[in-house]
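Hi team, as promised in this morning's meeting, here are the two structures we talked about. I've kept the exact order from the run log so nobody has to guess. The first one is mostly here for context; it's the second one we should focus on when we meet again. Sequence first, then the predicted structure tokens.
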Amino acid sequence: MITDVHAPQAHQQPYSRAYEQMLDKVRYEGAYPTREKADETVRLVLAGFGRQLTGDERVDLAARLPLEAARVLTAQIPDTQPLTGWAFVKSLAARSGASLATTRWDTGSVFAAVTAHAGPDLTTRILHQLPTGYALLFGQAELTPAA
């Protein structure tokens, strides 16, 4: 018997409606063929992001995300040295085995959904906390303070 390894198992809890909506947004933004591919992408990117984000911004973002997404984010121990946006993409690509272009696309698709949940104020706070390069991943201009 052939089974689909991506099909939900009988003992697995169904996703919350909020998480399903998040997956639908990621699926649309990333043009993924299935909700399962969107879920895989969300989990990869949020796990990586959980290793970068710290402090109140991490707590506040987790509170605004659907429970399933918040668990993935907060299950990670933050790195002692945060990565730049480009190094973040390279790290995710190495973990997933995907190309840098695909990983950049995946990251932008997930961060579009994260921004929708976080709202503009929290997104700005998050971007101020992180090293350079994340604003572009969040679909925003990279602004640097005047010297």
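And here is the second protein, the one for discussion:
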Amino acid sequence: MRIIFTLLLLLVSATGSAAPKAELWPYWQQSNEANTATIDHSLWQHTLNKYLVLHPQQTLFRYHAVSSNGKYDLDRYIRKLAATDPRSYSKDEQFAYWVNLYNALTVQLILDNYPLKSITKLGGFFSFGPWDEKLLTINNNALSLNDIEHRILRPIWQDARIHYVVNCASLGCPDLQPEAFTADNSEKLLEQSASRFINSTKGVKVTGSKVLLSSIYNWYSIDFGNKSMLQNHLNQYRKGKHVELNSISYDYDWTLNEAR
């Protein structure tokens, strides 16, 4: 029995370290570039203003402080997005929609299961985290966090910086941004997020000739390219001395990004 249990743990661990591939869900490719309407993200911005705490190297979330009204407003925001057909909006408006929805759903998942030490504790016995759980329905399509990130955002926009703006509620993750995404500020926030992460020790930590990188660069190496391409990408945002990727190791901290 002990051997079987050990094998199951190894299976779960292996599943957690295998990043999903970007596989397009064609249904979500449609857009209406003639539509100049915008989607209101003020409820999400209100949540960020009230509960997100900014530190020099990390943004943390005050999950313990979220009131019943705060939970209601977050749920109202998510339900509003779920009732919106993003395909009827422009591509820029859609990008902000999906990023904000992903991050809001992640926060809601933590709140629904709080207290906990790590998002990886959620999901079924054979799951490493909740990313495959169907969390909401849009246009009669049930979606999970993995659907949003790997079947919509990554394959449609094909921008490696997406990894810097979808937050997994963990200390090792790129920071949850204090601004809600909009069609107008997405490019600024993408650049800001990339720079902040790459210049943090959780993104890139240099010790002599050794470089400790976030596991994101290992899991999603297909998005960042070969070693030379990744090095160029990092140095595009690095402040100070450029990094040389000669001796690389990877790490990731799954501890909850909680502010006490």
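Starting points for discussion:
Residues 159 and 223 are 8 Å apart (CA to CA).
The beta strands are 52-54, 59-61, 136-138, 141-143, 204-207, 210-214, 247-251.
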